User: Fold this.
Amino acid sequence: MGSVEAVPTRPGVAPPVVLPQQLARDQQELALSLARCAGTNLPGGLARSPQEGVDFVNQFNSELELPQDVLLRRNQLTVSSPSRFFRVNPALFYKDVMGCYFEMSNLLDRKAPEIIIGGDCHLGNLGTMRAPDGTCFWGINDFDMAGRGSPEDDLERMATSLMLMGLGRLKPAEADQLVAGMAGAYLQELSRLAHSDSAPLCGIRANEARGEVAELIARQAQARQEDLLEKFTHHHHQKLKRNEELRDVEEPEASHLRAFLQHYDQDQGPTPDLKRPLEVLDIARKMESGGSTYGLNRYFILVSGHGQHPRILELKQELPTAPEQSTGDLEQANAEHIFTGMAALGGIFDPTMAYCTIDGDAYYMRERQREKGSLEPDKFASLQQWRDLSEQAAVALARAHAHQSGVAHAICDWVGGDQDLLISRLQHFARVYTEQTVQDCAAYRIANKLA
Assistant:
C-alpha cells in the first residue's frame, strides 16, 4: 500500500528518565561487571565492555522518543532476564556482529552468500499460525527485521537465544549439544531443499511435527474465533474491551486511522474472511506488546467478517531493519522494504497482510489469528523437549531462507565439507555472546537503576 498522510502523530520527546535511587551497590557491581570482561576466564574473551552495550541501548531508546512512563516499562522488560535483554535489542546484536564481533561471527574462512534473512530469529519468535489453505502450522512468526545479511546472523541469533533461554535449565555441554543439533538440522534441510523445485512453507505442518510443537499445533488448530473474541470484545462481539491491555484511541487519531483503513479497503486484494467493503466496528490502542517494538504504536481494529463472527486486525508500527540499520530513528524504517523482505522469506501467508507509511512511520497490518500460540520452554522438563524445539526451529529457518530462489544451493555450496567447523564456531560464538548478553543485562540494570 502507498503512503497515508493523515495519520496519528508520534509521541512527543520525553525528558530524560530519572529513576529512584534503588541500588546502593550500583557502582561496585558495575565495576565488577566491567572487570569480568577484562579477565581471561571467559570462553574466547568478550569483544567489548558491557558499558558499550549500555551506552548503545540508552542511545537507541532515546531515539525512539517514548514517553517517560513507557520508557520505564520498556527498561523493566529489558532487564527482566538476559534472554529478554537479547530479544529486546536486536540492533545491538547487529552492531556487534558488524563491528567488534565481526571476526568471531564468521563461521567459515570465506564469505557467506548475502541473502534476505529473518533478522530476529530467536526462539521466542516462533509459534502457530494459519496457513493459506486454512490449516494450522508452526514456524517463524515475526519477520519485522527482515533485510539483507548473512545466514550466519540468523543461525547465531537462534543459537544464542537457545543458550540464553537455557540458562539455569541446561548444562553447558547440553546447550552445546543442542546448538550442534540445531545447525545440523538446518544444513540437512537446506540440502534436501536444494534438490526441490517448489518454494517451501516457512514452517512445520502437523503431519511432520513432533513433541511439544505437535501438541501445540493440534491444540491451536481447534481454537475457535468466538473464544478469541470473548477475550478481547464485549457487547455481543461488537466492541473491543477497554482495560490495561486495550485503551481508547482519541480524536483526531481515530479519524486518521479510519482514513488509512479506507485506503486499505481500496487497495487490498481479496480477503475471504473479511466483509468488504470493510466495516469498522471499533478501534483500540494495544498496550504492553512486543519485544524490540515495545512502546511503539499498535492498534486493534475490529471489523465485520463473513458469517456471524467479526475479525480483529492488528496494525503495528515498525523499527528500522536491524541487519541494515542499527538505529532507533523511526524515520529510517521503510515499510515497503520490510514487507518485501517478509515476502522473500515466505512470511506473507495471511491475505489481510499489508504495509503502509503513516506520517513517515512504517506499519504493517495482519489479522490477529485464533490459531496464534507459542511454547513455554521455561516449563520444559526434559532435554528431548529442548532438542525437538531447536531442531524444528532450524528446519523452519532453513525453509524461510530456501524460499528465495537458489539460496539453498548457495548456502550448501558455501558450507561444502566444513559442516563440523561451522558447528564448532557457532557453538563458540553462542557461548561468548551469551556471556556478553548476561554482562550487558546486569550492567544496564545497574546503570539505569532498575530493581
Notes: The longest helix spans residues 419-447. The chain has one domain: 1-8+110-440.
